[in-house]
Design goal:
Mean pLDDT: 79
Strand content: 15-25%
Largest sheet: 6 strands, antiparallel
Order of helices and strands: HHHHHEEEEEEEEH
Number of strands: 8
Number of helices: 6
Structural class: alpha+beta
Radius of gyration: 29 Å
Strand order of the largest sheet: 6-3-2-1-7-8
Shape: elongated
Helix content: 25-40%
Low-confidence stretches: 153-168
Oligomer: single chain
Distance between the termini: 96 Å
């Protein structure tokens, strides 16, 4: 028996401690919960939590167009880098070579961030908002919130008893059933010493309060019915060509 069962074999003199399957599954579950908690604390807050904390609650006294012009200038620098715009010519009229290719601009603009752009309503089923224009200070899935050059927007509501005049410091423009226009600069607004992938220069708050509409620019139309997505969702979305329904 010794020769057939024991000779030449290794024998353990004591049983090794083994963790039970239940304890192993419990440890794995706790590790997953801990990782999820750390990830939740590290990521950006959601829309509901942001609303509860008042992240997007603006101070009505700060609804001044001039205060948001530096944000507009920062957006112009962002467009200059995104679209790889050329520096303005030193002298002489602009040439056709300075015009960027529209086929290369459209895919980039679809996924761009429009906070700081000047958005104008060209057509809409609601005639009351046609012609409204202002700097975009917030974009959601269904609306643009802008501040106009008049700093306030007045709207009149007629009730059965009296006519009330309300003053809104920020204008909320729905995307649905509206066609917008916005402009991008023809030339780069960044300094010639700027290098790609560097932080964008901070606009000078004392600089002249000029907008893209007061300089050579390219104008685009934006159909709100096909643009009802958050800016973060557009970044990873593949857009398909669709027929546009006229208003």
């Amino acid at each position: 028996m010794y020769t057939s069962r024991i000779k030449g074999r290794q024998m353990l003199l004591e049983n090794p401690a083994r963790e039970s399957r239940a304890k192993k599954e419990l440890d794995e579950k706790r590790a997953r919960q801990k990782a999820q908690k750390e990830k939740k604390n590290a990521k950006a807050i959601g829309k509901r939590e942001a609303k509860e904390k008042g992240v997007w609650r603006f101070d009505k006294t700060q609804a001044k167009f001039d205060l948001f012009v530096p944000l507009h200038h920062l957006w112009l620098g962002y467009m200059s880098e995104l679209l790889a715009l050329q520096q303005p010519p030193i002298a002489g009229p602009s040439s056709a070579q300075a015009m960027p290719s529209s086929s290369g601009m459209h895919p980039k603009l679809l996924k761009a961030d429009f906070h700081g752009s000047i958005m104008t309503v060209r057509q809409s089923k609601n005639p009351c908002i046609v012609g409204l224009s202002g700097i975009v200070i917030q974009e959601t899935e269904n609306v643009f919130k802008v501040v106009t050059q008049k700093d306030t927007v007045k709207r009149k509501i007629i009730t059965d008893y009296q006519t009330k005049l309300f003053t809104d410091h920020f204008t909320v423009i729905p995307k649905e059933n509206s066609i917008f226009s916005f402009a991008v600069p023809l030339y780069s607004t960044l300094p010639s010493s700027y290098k790609q992938n560097e932080p964008l220069p901070v606009p000078d708050p004392h600089a002249p309060k000029m907008t893209v509409l007061q300089a050579p620019h390219i104008e685009f139309e934006l159909h709100g019915n096909q643009f009802r997505f958050r800016s973060a969702d557009r970044a990873g979305r593949k857009f398909k060509h669709k027929e546009t329904i006229e208003l």
